Amino acid sequence: MTQLTKAEEQVMQILWSLGEGIVQDVRQAFPDPKPSRNTISTVIRILEQKGFVEHKAYGRTYLYFPKVAKAEYTKKQMFSMIHNYFNGSFASMASFFVKENDLSMTELDELLSQIKRNIDH
């Protein structure tokens, strides 16, 4: 799966949130200053070429929707990050984030509880 540019990822985050939308819907979801309609349209066309977005045509209007689920993209990006930056070790990644974010014992306990709940399911 191709990694997205920052602009592509911003558009995908909006489409994942909306579920579907026309270019104007995506533009309205951006904070000010909003990118131009043409910029968003170009990014969406690139996302279609990369296989992340599909559309349905309604006359001259296109309704865009994600072809790749957010969870699927997130999973692949996380595994890629763990592989590329932490030699494939989840423990090394977790240790790095604990150290960099100066987590308290309470936060670590909560993290461990969440991990245990996910393992049990």
UniProtKB/TrEMBL annotation:
One of its GO terms (molecular function) is DNA binding. Signal peptide: none annotated. Gene3D superfamilies: Penicillinase repressor domain, Winged helix-like DNA-binding domain superfamily/Winged helix DNA-binding domain. One of its GO terms (biological process) is negative regulation of DNA-templated transcription. Pfam families: Penicillinase_R. Keywords: DNA-binding, Transcription, Transcription regulation. The keyword Transcription regulation applies. The keyword Acetylation does not apply. SUPFAM superfamilies: Winged helix' DNA-binding domain. Belongs to the BlaI transcriptional regulatory family. This is Predicted transcriptional regulator. It comes from Paludibacter jiangxiensis. The lineage of its organism: Bacteria, Pseudomonadati, Bacteroidota, Bacteroidia, Bacteroidales.
